[in-house]
Amino acid sequence: MRNSNTFISYTGQKWLILALAGVLLTGSVSGCGSLGAGNPRQEMQQETQESLSGTQENSAGHTAGRTDGGETGKEEEREKETKEKDTQEKETKDEYKPYIWNRGYGPQVKLPAAYDYRTEGRAPQIGNQGSLGTCWAFASLTALESSLLPGQRMTFAVDHMSMHNNFLLSQDEGGEYTMSMAYLLAWQGPVLESEDPYGDGYSPDGLMPRKHVQEIQVLKAKDYDAVKRAVYLEGGVQSSLYTSMRDYQSESVYYNRETNSYCYMGSEKPNHDSVIVGWDDNYSRENFNMDLEGDGAFICTNSWGEDFGDQGYFYVSYYDTNIGVHNIVYTGVEQVNNYDRIHQSDLCGWVGQIGYGQDEAWFSNAYRAGSGEMLAAAGFYATDSDTQYELYVARHLPEAGDPELEKALNSRTLLARGKLANAGFYTIPLEEKILLDDDEKFAIIVKIITPGTVHPVAIEYDAGDGIALVDLKDGEGYLSHDGNVWEHVEETQGCNICLKVYTKYK
Questions:
Q1: SS3 155
Q2: Short-list 253, 260, 276, CA closest to 327
Q3: Residue 388: which domain range?
Q4: Is residue 49 domain-resident?
Q5: Is 426 part of any domain?
Q6: Does residue 259 sit in the same domain as residue 407?
Q7: What was the pLDDT predicted at 182?
Q8: Residue 197, preceding peptide bond in cis (omega within 30° of 0)
Q9: Could you write out the DSSP letters of every residue in 376-422?
């Protein structure tokens, strides 16, 4: 394949002393710790014991959510899956409905001046990270849990997210939400807190995810209307703050302990994650420790236990420098029987971006089907807002390096097209599933246009800092500036394309 002057964007901030040069979404690592305040994250569970159908392997045989690497025989596995699916369909047919509460109102609904999950039956469990730097994981899972409420209350394991991801940061070194996204989108989790209790320094192998996260949206910085609409219609919004406080007992000139109100106005980058679960446009500026131009505050959860703030909740002024800059909302949380298998090569997720100095590019991943697989959906990142895409499939591909491969990639069939309002990860289901031949090599191809960008394609790569566990041997990705001339990026650019495929068994 021919190289057509590819450019890779490695923008991002350094994490502590370690530079993860390609992290695109956040400014700094988050890891403030609490030294006490009640018990660690307790269960408030009416947890549905869902079946764990699907082999959940990527194309290289890596098993998402478990580390034993074993494979059950096809017949035995199929029989097991059938029984599990039948049981789940019987037990949970009406138990989990993804569109409840305000979601039916649509994006144009008029928002109230104040809204609070605590009065709407949507309040998530308050966590306590203790002395560990796990606020990023608590915030991610709290936001995820809130997206299921009030219909279903589940408590997910922070230990598993912070200890079973593909990054080499310990629990006391902090993390950030691109790590959460990668973990969830790879189906490595979430698992139940009851299966992996927090704070014991141990996380067992072999646990399987209890939900499949298929969509995560990244909202524009300081778009408060978008944040409020996400909170109202979808679930809690994970966001970031700067704080010098370390626990519920800490004092800060930016925190009014009497009113449980916080506001920082300065140049420091965020270092702590929380979850926006409401707002009050009329919350008085007089509740904060500094002079502000106006009223208004977001209602946020923290992960310092219920002894912090108002039983774990506090108010953050609209005028805070960092609140609402990085905004993550979990908009696609599905049952584990939605698809049977995930093909993927990007377990570290969106680490960098690649392109040709223009807002348009083509990218592709080739995979090999197993027995009786039907192509059902594909998932990829939009690296900025207003992304347009076209989704294609190319079938019966020759091996990498074959002179006929480029021709095969160009002999493609259009499956879907659309536009994505926000950045984030999206799963595109096919209107009709496509039965793949046993052992067939196929490729999903995406044409993407992301206005205002010059590197529109999300990639996984090893920055050489020892943080990310990147395996280039498990991927076969291709990139093109025009959809005709392709390059094999594992060879030419040292990266994996972030493009997943989901299949069902016939």
A1: coil
A2: 276
A3: 7-23+350-505
A4: no
A5: yes
A6: no
A7: 98
A8: no
A9: EEEEEEE-SSSEEEEEEEE-S---TT-TTHHHHHHS-EEEEEEEESS
